[in-house]
Specification:
The complex is a heterodimer of chains A (about 325) and B (about 140).
Chain A (H helix, E strand, L loop, with lengths): L2 H6 L3 H12 L3 H10 L7 E7 L5 H14 L4 E7 L8 E3 L14 E7 L11 H10 L4 E8 L13 E6 L7 H4 L3 H4 L2 E4 L7 H14 L11 E3 L6 H24 L2 H33 L1 H10 L5 H12 L2
Parallel strand pairs in A: 1-5, 1-6, 2-4, 2-5, 6-7, 7-8
Helix pairs in contact in A: 2-3, 2-5, 4-9
Chain B lengths: L6 E5 L8 H12 L3 E4 L6 H11 L3 E6 L4 H14 L7 E5 L3 H9 L4 E3 L5 H11 L7
Parallel strand pairs in B: 1-2, 1-3, 3-4, 4-5
Helix pairs in contact in B: 2-3
The chains are: A alpha/beta (about 325), B alpha/beta (about 140).
Chain lengths: ~325, ~140
Amino acid sequence: MSTAESIRAGDIRLASRLIRNLEDKNPRARELVKELFPYTGKARVLGLTGAPGAGKSTITDYLISSYRATGQQVGVLAVDPTSPFSGGAILGDRVRMQKHAQDRGVFIRSLATRGALGGLAAAVDDAVHVLDAMGMDCIILETVGTGQSEVDVMNNAHSVILTLTPGLGDEVQTLKAGIMEIADLFLINKADQKGASKLYQELMRMLNMAQEHHAGWRPPVLLLQNIAHPEEFARQVEEVRNKIDEHYQVLLDKDILGQRERRKARLQLGNSLRASLLDPVVRQLEQSGEMDRLVRQIVDKTSDPHTLADELRDRFLR
Amino acid sequence: MAERNLRVMVAKPGLDGHDRGARVLARSFRDAGYEVIYTGCHQTPEQIVEAALQEDVDLIGLSCLSGAHKHLFPRVVRLLEERDAGDIPVIGGGIIPDKDISYLYEQGIREVFTPGTHLQTILDWIENNVASREAL
């Protein structure tokens, strides 16, 4: 069996290795994605985002159970931040999901951001293709803990779920552009804490102000509470899954899925083009030591970044 | 081009909730530039091995302070072998009597670090003994 065939047949360790090579921008990994791509397009992709500690991993854990109960295979890509100093990372989202470790119908892979600022990792686009080609019915993308502007998940997910918690800021926060706009579903987690009903009212007012909702879908706001009682929490997450399914049906009925797929394809082509043009150039500059010389010219003010970039473009893109 | 980060799992097998040491190690691995998969407490050897495969790790570090290391550490090594992943090195640490250490070596644990070990000693061992998985 070829490597691509083994991955499609469910070899999890090989799939994880491929994702790692994609993270490392290994040229051979791109070739494997080319082989896998014809088998993609069947998976539903959910994006789960929200602030650090809002409960994304815990909710992911319960969503996995919920989808598994319907017999679906579930893939999870969980992203945590890379240190800007050491390049290391603590990938700790699994802590909340370890009860699924032995379930062969679940594949959980942690990724570090490695400098990506949009809430995901650069390799996520391709990692989704890998999980999709493996036959995962549902893929959950868990972003890093996000603030206001990490919205990349909207380009990868069919449905975006934003997890909020009470006690963060006043109503002005709900007016702001960015992450509050991308949610197809709002969750107020830890709703047994003070401020949950205020947050709920603020979200309602925000949604009421919208001139029209995309595709006529008004994002529902669901409350989650009482994590100390797992069965009760699971029932609430069951309701979340119902809403996700309703949203997906709307995407299908109104042919919005096609729009989202086209947007995603356009972005991925742009990203891949940038990578295939830029990565070899940067690699060559680093390996030859020229990068260090160029950096010195900028610092010494004997040249500037734009002049040097133009010169490099003319040289490499002849 | 980005150099290849080591991926290291830090796991606590068995009925042992004392994870301060494991967290200190995870943090120092992070600061050494590794991607650290942290799975938390109360893991079965089966869970640890499946997670290690899913995460494509280069090394598994087990921490045990409960006294069950003679059962739990070798079990992780056996399960890895059963899953054709005996190439992933396993190291251990925790409250481990000196007299148990040679038994653990015999069982395939590559190195054992007991309380008082300098973090740098552990990092040096990893640098000298653990290679990042080859590309496909």
